[in-house]
Known about the structure:
Elements: H1 3-9, E1 13-19, E2 25-30, H2 32-35, H3 39-53, E3 60-64, H4 67-79, E4 82-88, E5 94-96, E6 107-115, H5 119-130, E7 134-143, E8 155-160, E9 165-166, H6 172-175
Helix pairs in contact: 3-4
Amino acid sequence: MNTEEMFRKSGAILDGHFILTSGRHSSVYWEKFKVMQYPQYVQQLCGMIAENFRKESIDLVAGPTTAGIILAFEVARQLGTRAVYAEKAENKTFAFKRGAAINPGDRVLVVDDVLTTGGSIREVIAAVKERKGIVIGVGVLVDRTEQKPDFGAPLFGCHRAEAVSYPADKCPLCAAKIPLVKPGGS
Length: 186
């Protein structure tokens, strides 16, 4: 079963008018928690990321809360290494807490669920670099970027989705008065 089939079979690809975490609007939403209800899918998707970076001598895998915890854990398990998790700090950026150890020179793979603008990934990369870790790569379940971002390390996506998103003030879905949905959290 390919990546898109896993997302479709689990009901994770939603159509409508959505506000994304980035604040942008889209007619398609990838609800990663629907696919993450199936351990066999998570294992297979994380296996794709692990296999892509297996030869890179990864010391640890880092992911942002919340979905990134599950993904970092499973990718690290498959690579036989450690996992650490970045949480939102008081200043609203990601930071490593709860004794998460990143040693200077550690080779770090950053993982996340759905990539649209790369904001969360950039914050995790900054937190890794603050601890003097070296970001070796970025792995995501779904890459839905309109333009490939430059993270300063190779990017691997299990699936590439052509999904256009719009700034809120230029959204044709808003202009068409299609009801806006803020998915997640409920």
